[in-house]
Every structure is written in C-alpha cells, then in structure tokens.
Design a protein that fits this description.
- This protein has 14 helices and 23 strands.
- By secondary structure, it is an alpha/beta fold.
- It is globular, with a radius of gyration of 22 Å.
- It is found in: Endomembrane system; Membrane.
Length: about 475
C-alpha cells in the first residue's frame, strides 16, 4: 500500500465522498462505535470483492444490534489520518485490517478495553529481523531484533491521541525516505520517530493463525485459511514467461532456472545480449547494461504483442536470479480478470511523500495482463535510456495512465532470510530473488517446490512458527 495518499486521491474523496471504492461508511448503534475499522484494499475488481467480503463479515457479527464504523481504503494508506478529525471526538481507536484478516469483534473489544484510550498506543503482532536487510535499509544493523514492527495480516491498532499527533506530523513532515519498500517496517519507524513516539506493543490476541485452527479460539484476529484460488488455475500455456539474462550469466544462473521452476513453464524464452543456441537465448538487439535493463524490458513487451510468440493473456517477466513457483502463480491469477489492465507483483513506492508513484519491483517478478501491455505501449511510454530502471519507468507510465499497480505479498524482491520468519510462516510464497550467499536450488526446494505439480494450489495457509 502507498505510505501516503497522492493529492489526486484525496481530491477524489472530497469531490465524491460516497465513492464505494474509496470509502464505505456504516453506523448502526452504540457498542463498538469507538473503533474505526480500516480495510486496506486496492483498485482492482478482485480486491474490491475481497474487501466487501470482510466488510459483510464484520457487519454480520453485529447482527445489526451494535455500531460499527468501517472505511474501505483503496491505495491511500493514511487517508484515515486525514479524516481523523471526523472521528476523534467520538472514537478511541483506528483498527487497520488486510482483506484476509478475520476479526472476532467481541474478543477484540475485550482486548482494546485493557488499554487506556487517552494515551498513545501502537498495538499489533510484533515481527523482528534476525539480521539487517536491504529491504529495511539495513536499519538497526547492530541489533536488528531490537526493533519490532507489526504483521499487517494480524491487524494493528492506533489510539486516537496517537493518530491526531501523526496527522499533524504528516502535514509538516512527510515520509523522509525516497523509497517505500516494506510499509509495515517504515510505518513503525515513522511512529517511533527515533524514540520520540511509542514503540509497538505486542498483543498476543492479534494472530496470524488460520481462522479454523483450534488454537484460534484465543485470538481476536486470524487470517483466512483459503488459498489464493478463485476458480480453475490459469493454464500454463496461457502465461508467457520472459527471462532476462546476459552472456556472463549463461553458465551459472540459467542452469538454475532450468533445474528448478523453468520445467514448470509451457512457454518460456530467454532474452540476452548474445544468441546462444545451446540454451537457447534470443538477442533482442539491445546491448547489455550493468544497471537498469529498461531497453530490454520494453523490447520484451513489444515482442509479447507481436506474431513471434503465442498469443496469451498473461506475461511474466523475471530476472535470471528469480526463483518462482509457476503453479502457485497460476492459482493466484485465477483471481484476476485478464481483460482488465493488471500489473501484479511486489509493490514499492518512490517519492510518495512528494507525490511520486508506485511500481512493481522487477526482481520478484512482474506480471502483466495483455490489456496492460496494450495500454502501456499505446500510450507512447518509453525508456529515457537503455539502462534506466525498467520497473520504475513502468511505474511512472502506469501512474500517468491511471492504471493501478497491484501488490501481492507473495512476491519477494529478496531472499527468504531477508524476511521475518513469522511473516513467511503464514504464507505460501510465489517468488524470491537473488543468489547471494545461498544455494538457490535448495531455496527453491524448501520454499517453492510442491511435491506434486498442483499440490500448492489447494494448500491451506501455514500455521505460525
């Protein structure tokens, strides 16, 4: 999710406050009216449906006898802070939920009653790093485990006194970092404010145990146990896979692809600066660059729409050091409509505090529907140089087209050890990236390989460690 709202999103809300994609408001009584529930969603038909399911689940629990305040936020993560003046007088808490979070309202009410609502509180299920990582800007390198941040899947809460102070802070001092990489860590840093604000207070009842697990009876929140499968998985021959490589990696990285996930692909081509018939690789006429690869990526986009490759609904672009589970991707794509302009992967942000843009980071894998590629190329969007960062240029183009980038936490720009163990424990991941100081084949076998070709499609969410 974007760390801060773009001005255009705030303006849209002001001009059309009844837009159900931006905000959905319900008030019915007296009991839980001191809690504002914020459902974090995205501008995509699948995610709109998921957020609506959660909204209905919360309302059904009330049986229309108690009061709920519900906001559905699309992309504008801190929209609720801008609206806190509307809630501050009558509310005590803002509770943030992801689409897959499940809430037991009565249990949650009992938990929140334990905390003095007049004080500043930052509540959640704590995660911590075991070593400093690039995804957290190598923060707390001396002792990474000393800093805790919330697992968004479990839900997290802020008291209104803290929200009011943060609202003023955001107006005066937006996000300092140019890059928004891992929102949950950066939110915690922003709130902590170098010891000026509160640290995260761990709440055991905020859980990421699957909702039907017997241990979940002690939890106020759980996660949906349903795997990301919305129908028949997309057929493998409806996904065209493009692997970006170069001559110097033909002998070490390409063999890893062939020994692991490459065998799962029906349609796959390797694109390089050198045509090697033994692999084979295809030279797109774009020289290799040490950084960026924008020229190569746009050549792949053009080739995808040409007669040189089979006509498919989906395009997957990956680096030669990306590890991915194609069966799990096939399952996930069953939830998306390829007739929509879909751009899917792990979302990062650039300059969001100054009105920047979001983009799908390339290392974790970039997935495009055919319609998205058509709109991108028809717009005239192009690289300003061959070595420009391809993922960021695409983000700029999509932002100009008002086409949203869709985030999935199942894609990973880094290695498994760069993420908190308990964060990965309730995932069935789709991708990881980089071969630094790891055995990539062992990583694939541990994290991404299913014993049977389709076993991962029906796998329930894992229990917590």
């Amino acid at each position: 999710m974007s760390f801060l709202c773009l001005e255009s999103e705030l303006l849209a809300l002001q001009q059309n406050p009844s837009d159900p994609l931006l905000i959905s408001w319900f008030s019915m009584g007296h009991h839980l009216r001191d809690v504002v529930f914020v459902i974090q969603s995205q501008r995509n038909s699948f995610h709109v449906r998921q957020a609506e399911k959660l909204r209905k689940d919360l309302l059904l629990q009330t049986q229309y006898k108690i009061s709920l305040q519900l906001l559905i936020i699309a992309e504008c993560f801190f929209l609720s802070f801008s609206l806190s003046s509307q809630f501050g007088k009558n509310s005590s808490w803002i509770m943030f939920l992801e689409e897959d979070t499940r809430v037991k309202l009565q249990k949650l009410h009992e938990v929140l009653k334990k905390f003095d609502r007049r004080k500043e509180w930052f509540l959640g299920k704590p995660l911590h790093d075991e070593e400093s990582t690039i995804i957290h800007h190598y923060a707390f390198s001396e002792n990474p485990a000393a800093f805790e941040y919330p697992d968004f899947s479990a839900g997290w809460a802020l008291s209104i006194p803290l929200v009011n102070r943060l609202t003023s802070k955001i107006e005066e001092e937006p996000l300092k970092s140019d890059f928004t990489i891992d929102l949950k860590h950066e939110v915690a840093l922003y709130i902590w404010e170098d010891r000026k604000g509160p640290r995260l207070t761990g709440v055991p009842e905020l859980c990421t145990i699957p909702e039907h697990n017997p241990r979940a009876q002690y939890c106020a929140t759980t996660v949906s146990s349903r795997s990301p499968l919305c129908g028949q998985p997309v057929k493998s021959d409806n996904i065209f896979v493009a692997v970006k490589t170069c001559k110097k990696f033909h002998s070490d990285r390409v063999p890893v692809v062939k020994k692991t996930w490459g065998k799962q692909a029906s349609l796959l081509e390797y694109y390089s600066d050198y045509a090697d018939p033994s692999i084979p690789t295809i030279n797109l006429g774009v020289p290799n660059t040490e950084r960026g690869h924008c020229g190569k990526t746009f050549a792949i986009l053009r080739r995808f729409l040409s007669n040189h490759v089979p006509n498919t609904d989906w395009l997957l672009i990956v680096d030669d050091d990306t590890l991915i589970s194609l069966p799990r991707l096939q399952a996930l794509l069953s939830c998306y409509d390829s007739s929509e302009p879909v751009c899917l992967g792990e979302r990062y942000g650039y300059g969001l505090g100054q009105g920047g843009y979001s983009y799908i980071t390339g290392g974790g894998g970039m997935v495009f529907s055919r319609e998205a590629v058509v709109q991108l190329l028809a717009s005239g969007c192009k690289c300003y140089s061959n070595d420009a960062p391809d993922d960021m240029v695409l983000g700029m183009c999509l932002n100009a087209l008002r086409v949203p980038v869709t985030h999935s936490p199942l894609f990973h720009q880094a290695r498994p050890e760069d993420y908190a163990k308990e964060f990965l424990a309730h995932q069935t991941p789709i991708s990881f990236h980089k071969h630094w100081n790891i055995d990539p084949i062992a990583v694939f076998n541990k994290w991404l390989k299913d014993d049977k070709h389709t076993e991962g499609l029906q796998k329930n969410t894992k229990d917590e460690l």
